[in-house]
Automatic annotation (TrEMBL):
Residues 197-336 form the Glycerol-3-phosphate dehydrogenase NAD-dependent C-terminal domain. Sn-glycerol 3-phosphate binds at K125, G153, K208, D261, S271, R272, N273. Catalyzes the reduction of the glycolytic intermediate dihydroxyacetone phosphate (DHAP) to sn-glycerol 3-phosphate (G3P), the key precursor for phospholipid synthesis. It comes from the Bacteria. One of its GO terms (cellular component) is cytosol. This is Glycerol-3-phosphate dehydrogenase [NAD(P)+]. It comes from Simiduia aestuariiviva. Pfam families: NAD_Gly3P_dh_C, NAD_Gly3P_dh_N. The lineage of its organism: Bacteria, Pseudomonadati, Pseudomonadota, Gammaproteobacteria, Cellvibrionales. The gene is gpsA.
Length: 357
């Protein structure tokens, strides 16, 4: 629940018993600011790196990120900077929170400054098209030898900053990284659950954006509750089918990073991907919608990357195929929706087997 006075940051528990560690967060957008603010509230000296010097100076002076999350005061331990060396030098934990389009470029830039034992965490929910590369794989490729993790879950930046009670998932092979992230980020309004299936958690966060677009579109077209429930459930089936083919554990999709984030983004117009879908459903042009949004909606790029992968690997993804046909091949939404309804009737829960064969 939100604090009565959303500017009052005092209610987040300060972890007096925990030794402060230097934390860097790269990306001064909505989510980077939210993550950095939690860490700083918990008493960790936290450096929020943003690429534009003038904006970093303004944020540092005004103690808020007025462009992305106006009205919320920075915790005392939060420093905004455009100096990469200042941000990541000596940091023992580094979060990368830039959109997937700039992820590799930013990681390449920090290489000379990062401590050899720094723990690296991606919070980005996208996929690099070339080679179908996940953000954690970019970290592995560019910075071999570091422990790597993925933070993902039903987490609107705005609600985190408002101190709405929130749960997230940290996924990694490294128990040290998991414990460090739990220590640095957990508070009485932010719970951090552990998962060892990094690939599943990361794929869940990226894939759900596609289905949020579909859900927004369905809302604009007047879909009822039955339709929404079917869409969300079949989206879960489709995303876990692809992820399972790619080596993830389908059980991960029953957790916060899977069904949790899918429900969140498919049912709320706080989701930018949902809003893109809604506007498409109203008949507006994609370029205009994206330009007006002014923030990243990863689902549009992820749709193209996933549609190509599904075709290459022959994975049955009718919703992805249908949305791709609407957005990139100009097919009328009604025609695609009709085809989906009269198409092959698949198993309800396919990991159980059909049970009738
Ligand atoms: N906003 C949320 O609620 C939320 C929650 C969880 C995860 N995410 C994910 O976090 C990532 C970032 O999202 P956001 O909401 O913070 O985006 P945003 O649009 O609010 O901000 C993006 C920030 O990244 C910066 N940026 C973009 N390209 C860059 C580059 N090449 N180099 C350096 N900086 C660059 C922009 O200047 C901006 O400060 C996305 O993958 C998103 O899916 C967002
Ligand atoms: O606004 P969206 O659609 O990018 O969603 C933000 C987060 O991923 C929600 O968990």
């Amino acid at each position: 629940m939100s604090d009565e006075n959303s500017n009052n940051t005092a209610s987040i528990a300060t972890k007096a018993a925990v030794k402060p560690v230097k934390v860097a967060v790269l990306g001064g957008g909505s989510f980077g600011t939210a993550v950095a603010n939690i860490s700083a509230h918990n008493g960790h000296p936290t450096y929020l790196w943003m690429r534009h010097k003038d904006r970093a100076l303004l944020c540092q002076r005004d103690r808020e990120n007025a462009h992305y999350v106006p009205g919320y005061r920075f915790a005392d331990s939060l420093n905004a900077t455009s100096d990469l060396a200042e941000a990541v030098g000596d940091a023992s934990l580094v979060f990368v929170s830039v959109p997937s389009s700039g992820f590799r470029e930013v990681v390449q830039k920090i290489k000379p400054f990062v401590r050899s034992d720094a723990l690296l965490v991606s919070t980005t929910k996208g996929i690099e098209g070339k080679g179908f590369t996940l953000m954690s794989e970019i970290l592995e490729q560019e910075m071999p030898g570091h422990a790597i993790g993925v933070l993902s879950g039903p987490n609107f930046a705005k609600e985190i900053i408002e101190q709405q009670q929130t749960g997230t998932v940290i996924a990694s092979d490294s128990g040290t990284l998991i414990r460090r992230v739990q220590t640095v980020l957990s508070s009485d309004t932010f719970r951090v659950y552990a998962n060892r299936d990094r690939r599943g958690v990361e794929l869940a966060g990226a894939l759900k954006n596609i289905y949020a677009i579909i859900s927004g579109m369905a809302t604009a077209l007047g879909a009822g509750s039955n339709t929404h429930a079917m869409l969300i459930t079949r989206s879960l089936a489709e995303m876990s089918r692809l992820a399972n083919t790619l080596g993830a554990n389908p059980m991960t999709f029953l957790g916060l990073a899977g069904v949790g984030d899918l429900i969140l983004t498919c049912t709320s117009d706080l989701s930018r991907n949902y809003r893109v879908g809604f506007a498409l459903g109203q008949g507006r042009a994609l370029d205009d919608i994206v330009a007006e949004l002014g923030q990243v909606a990863e689902g549009v790029n992820t749709l193209q990357v996933v549609a190509a992968k599904a075709q290459e690997m022959d994975v049955y993804m009718p919703l992805v195929k249908g949305l791709y046909a609407v957005i990139f091949q100009g097919l009328p939404i009604e025609e695609v929706a009709h085809k989906l309804m009269v198409g092959e009737q698949n198993h309800d829960v396919e990991f159980m087997g059909a049970g009738d064969e």
